[in-house]
Amino acid sequence: MQSRFRSDRRLTARMGVTLFLLGLLYVGFVAALIVLLKSWVLVVVVAAGLLGAQYWFSDRVALFAMRGRVVEREEFPELHGVVDRLCAIADMPKPVVAVSDMEMPNAFATGRNPDHAVVCVTTGLLRRLEPDELEGVLAHELSHVAHKDVAVITVASFLGVIAGLIVRFAFYSQVFGGGRRDQNTAVIFAAVMGVSAAVYAISFLLIRALSRYRELAADRAAALLTGRPSVLASALTKVSGDIARIPTRDLRTAQAFNAFYFTPALGREPSVARLFSTHPSLEQRLDQLARISAELGEAAAPGGG
């Protein structure tokens, strides 16, 4: 069922191209592993099993990693009320609502499709935002679900995760030391590590490029659905500023899920690092919202409309 979130053909095209390129890369990666390891059954079974697990259980893994828990209406009536209202406006199924007991102000959505989705906010976000700002953030997250880019990012990240795990395994198993393995084995492991590192680097760049665009698409869709882009801009400014003041050690556990967050758990980034960021810069996002606000004839002040 099509939701009332504004469709984005450019986002759909980018998702299709990214999945196509990653699919080609995935086939080549599996073929290289089969040639190097000489065991197609092991490679195919393990790869298929891990892909299936990531697709079907990504929401549970994300909630567990971020200490999120499903909450009922009786516990967080205001939060459920906002989600109910937005889902009614957008004409989409209501996702599972969860809360993570973290000081870092943020939110994320995950799940394989709109009927099996989770929207999670941190207690730090709930404490900091006004109700209309929270609505803007939740509209942003729900647009990810409606556009199905959450599922695409989940599947797309699979290849990079597997390649990264293989690189780490090869590194920590000390394939080049100890003299316990013969020279041929060391060469095979070195080749596997090299192929995996190359695959990880390519998939990393493809996913980052898609992730930055999908955040702009979600901002745009949320602003048009609510008709209040300045409120979303206010929430963005507030959350980004507060994250920059959170101690770095408290952000480290969250960085693995940056691609899913409303804003990255990095604080301030050097200009060079932004080239590899999961999110566009705050300036880009605010400029886009300002343009939409002007198009809609909304008052420039946050909260106006």
From TrEMBL:
Please give the superkingdom of this protein's source.
Bacteria
**Which InterPro entries does the record match to this protein?**
HtpX_protease (IPR050083), Pept_M48_protease_HtpX (IPR022919), Peptidase_M48 (IPR001915)
Domain Peptidase M48 stretches: 75-291
Among Gene3D superfamilies, the record links this protein to: Metalloproteases ('zincins'), catalytic domain
Give me the residues that bind Zn(2+), please: H140, H144, E215
User: According to its UniProt record, which cofactors does this protein need?
Assistant: Zn(2+)
Arranged from A to Z, the UniProt key words for this protein are: Cell membrane, Hydrolase, Membrane, Metal-binding, Metalloprotease, Protease, Transmembrane, Transmembrane helix, Zinc
Q: What class of enzyme is it?
A: hydrolase
**What GO biological process terms are annotated to this protein in UniProt?**
proteolysis
Q: Please state where this protein is localized.
A: Cell membrane
Task: Spell out the protein name for this chain.
Answer: Protease HtpX homolog
User: Which species is listed as the source?
Assistant: Streptomyces curacoi
Q: What is the lineage of its organism?
A: Bacteria, Bacillati, Actinomycetota, Actinomycetes, Kitasatosporales
- Which gene name does the record give? htpX
